[in-house]
Design a protein that fits this description.
The chain has 414 residues and is of the alpha/beta class. The protein is 32% helix and 18% strand. The strands form three sheets. A ten-stranded mixed beta sheet has the order 5-4-6-7-1-8-14-13-9-10, sandwiched between helices. Strands 2-3 form a two-stranded antiparallel sheet. A two-stranded antiparallel ribbon has the order 11-12.
Length: 414
């Protein structure tokens, strides 16, 4: 099995329209959550979200071609541009038949589904644009990215709810490790801050209704949490085999060493008791990386700020890490600052986990004023970033349908 390294990062999030801007705001504990501006949410139970308000798709895509993709595609292209350029992969002497594109998407093109349904019901079927289907199908995120750069390896979407982006990175990692491809663009993209997205999750009572104080609404592990804050964005990595990266002289940012994927086989939306499925995913990732629980320094928790999910993840981590919880393990939830990016969450959070190792900084869990009793003993980095000498980081992503994915990254050691 080949070693798999990271050579480029790209991100568009509620905290910034680039990796550097996002990371700077996350480390500073600045919230990117606000009152929804993308549609009139006045009559919705939840009127807040993490929107990429500074994002301008025309900076990345010709105006006349914007209609060829929904917003989730635009976000993916922007993040891919940053990652590919950072890695120097676009013009590198690589065999593009052996460069794959793996981008996870949870729900696709909701804003165009809404608009096109309105066109159908008010103007009739003959007024539906021929670009509708190519714009909204989920695989157009990796499809458009692969066409943009001429990457002719495997090109597909992983759709596994809030684990989608993490599964995409994990599957790309495995393909490179097995020698099926030499490099890949991998991560997630999502744009579900729409009437259907917000209305649907609100109907499930899943969203925070702290509408008068948006920046305080996402509060993982805090007793006062009342649901997650829906958000949008994209986070992508360039993964390469170590040999391929060295051969072209690429700068190596870190290494992916472990991946675990499990199913709860339990409930539509609730995690298995005591986070049993999540714990198995973490243990699988450790075994894949030939690591012990004591080797992990930092966990970027899934921790969405829901009453049940956060407690179950704490139980899962306590089961996996045991005494390590009180002996140096650092855990935080970056969703506290940007909300829950759904299918893009795993991609963005893998990027942030790698940056935490690079800089030796644990991003904070903001709004953590009154921790859950079950959080006792955990260092959850309340409200202010902490400096640590991290070497190994874990990123958790769990989703409806009982899907669980865990990634482990390391600082690169030649």
């Amino acid at each position: 099995m080949r070693r798999v390294v990271v050579t480029g990062l790209g991100a568009v999030t509620p905290c910034g329209v680039s990796v550097d801007e996002t990371w700077s705001n996350v480390v500073a504990g600045r919230s990117g959550i606000g009152t929804i501006t993308g549609f009139d949410a006045e009559n919705f139970a939840s009127r807040i979200g993490g929107e990429c308000t500074g994002f301008d798709a025309e900076k990345y895509i010709e105006k006349k071609r914007l209609r060829e993709g929904a917003r989730f595609v635009h976000l993916a292209i922007a993040a891919a541009d940053e990652a590919v350029n950072a890695a120097g992969l676009a013009d590198a002497p690589v065999d593009k038949d052996r460069v794959g594109t793996y981008i996870g998407v949870g729900m696709c093109g909701l804003e165009l589904l809404e608009a096109t349904a309105n066109t159908l019901f008010t103007k009739g079927p003959r007024r539906i644009t021929p670009y509708f289907i190519p714009s909204v199908i989920a695989n157009m995120a990796p499809g458009q990215v692969s066409m943009r750069f001429g990457f002719r390896g495997p090109n597909f979407t992983t759709t596994s709810a809030c684990s989608s982006g993490a599964h995409a990175i994990g599957e790309a990692y495995r393909a490179i490790a097995r020698g099926e491809v030499d490099a890949a663009v991998a991560g997630g993209s999502e744009a579900a801050v729409t009437g259907l997205g917000v209305g649907g999750f609100a109907a499930m009572k899943a969203l925070s209704t702290r509408n008068d104080a948006p920046e305080l609404a996402s509060r993982p592990f805090d007793r006062g949490r009342d649901g997650f804050v829906i958000a949008e964005g994209a986070g992508l990595m360039i993964l390469e085999s170590l040999d391929a990266a060295k051969q072209r002289g690429a700068k190596i940012l870190g290494e992916v060493v472990g991946y675990g994927a499990t199913s709860d086989a339990y409930h539509l939306t609730q995690p298995a008791p005591e986070g049993e499925g999540a714990a198995r995913a973490m243990r699988q990732a450790l075994a894949d990386g030939k690591l012990n629980a004591s080797d992990v320094d930092y966990v970027n928790a899934h921790a969405t700020s829901t009453p049940t999910g956060d407690i179950q993840e704490l139980a899962a981590m306590r089961s996996v890490f045991g005494s390590r919880v009180a002996e140096g393990l650092v855990v935080s939830s970056t969703k506290s600052m940007m909300g829950h990016l759904l299918g893009a969450a795993g991609g963005v959070e893998a990027v942030l986990t790698l940056l935490a190792l690079r800089d030796g900084v644990a991003p904070p869990t903001i709004n953590l004023d009154d921790p859950e009793e079950s959080a006792k003993g955990f260092n959850l980095v309340p409200n202010k970033a902490q400096e640590h000498g991290f070497k190994v980081g874990m990123s958790n992503s769990f989703g409806f349908g009982g899907t669980n994915a865990t990634l482990i990254v390391k600082r690169f050691d030649a």
